Amino acid sequence: MKKACKHDLPALVFLFALLMLWQLGAMRMDAAYILPTPLQILQKLWELREPLFTVHLPATMLVTLVGLAISLALGLGLAVLMDARPFFQKAIYPVVVASQTIPTTAIAPLFVLWFGYEIWSKVLVTVLITFFPITITVYDGLQSAKLEMAELLLTYGASKRDIFLKIKVPCTLPYFFSAIKMAIPMSIIGAAIGEWLGAQSGLGYFSRRMMTQLDGAGVFAPIVLLSAVAMLAVALVATLEKKLVRWRGEF
Q: N or C terminus of the chain with fewer C-beta within 10 Å?
């Protein structure tokens, strides 16, 4: 416990210093509709706790989880396919990279036109943002497997399935967890962007509604909540990673 606290102390000190600078700068500006203080944001978060936690947070988390699940299935499938067949790597890799050049804020309104204000327009935005790091990172992990180890197993009569399960999967696990830790915040961002551009519920929608009312603290409150949820989710994944990937060494 003491080791964990000591490890996190620099981050906590830096965060506290940033919050103090923010507080002092916002107080000096004295324009809460533009830049509210952290205390004003926390106060607003408490005042709006019922709609935020019972209506809008569940809506955003549903979009995030569905989008992340689809991105995982799509990203893992494409990574395995590219690793197994060089032809697919040459065909798919440029398309995957090109998909990230599409401006999300430009195409998200089209998703709303196609699918309406239902969940799928936001899910598609989330998938578009999230599947790329999963695909590329997991593919790099599969490619990192030692060729000599695979050749050694082949001499002992191992099948391609044995090589995949006993060499490639263990080599890919650290990359997989890194991809998940990148994908979680990005999926939350994708859900919020989708809600901001077209939704009837969700933290992104709520933040946009507060902006139309010139409520600076109300705009920041959902953002702070999203950040807290993302950090908690990444911390849980990091804890699971430490338990499953023991050979990676100390974090």
A: N
Residue 23 placed within a domain: no
User: Does residue 28 fall inside a structural domain?
Assistant: no
| CATH (domain of 150) | 1.10.3720.10
Q: First and final CA of the chain: distance in angstroms?
A: 15
Instruction: For residue 228, give the H/E element and its range.
Output: helix 216-244
Nearest of 72, 93, 95, 66 to residue 82 by alpha carbon = 93
Structure tokens at 65: 């989880």
Q: What is the reported pLDDT for 146? A: 67
Domain hosting 102: range is: 66-244
In the predicted model, is pLDDT for residue 250 greater than 50? no
Is residue 180 one of the residues assigned to a domain? yes
192-233 confidence digits (pLDDT tens):
888 887 778 889 889 888 888 888 888 999 999 999 999 999
Number of domains in the chain: 1
Q: What is the pLDDT of residues 199-209, one digit of tens each?
A: 788 898 898 88
The answer to whether position 15 is within a domain reads no
pLDDT, average across residues 58-68:
93
Residues 6+ apart with CB under 8 A from 10: none
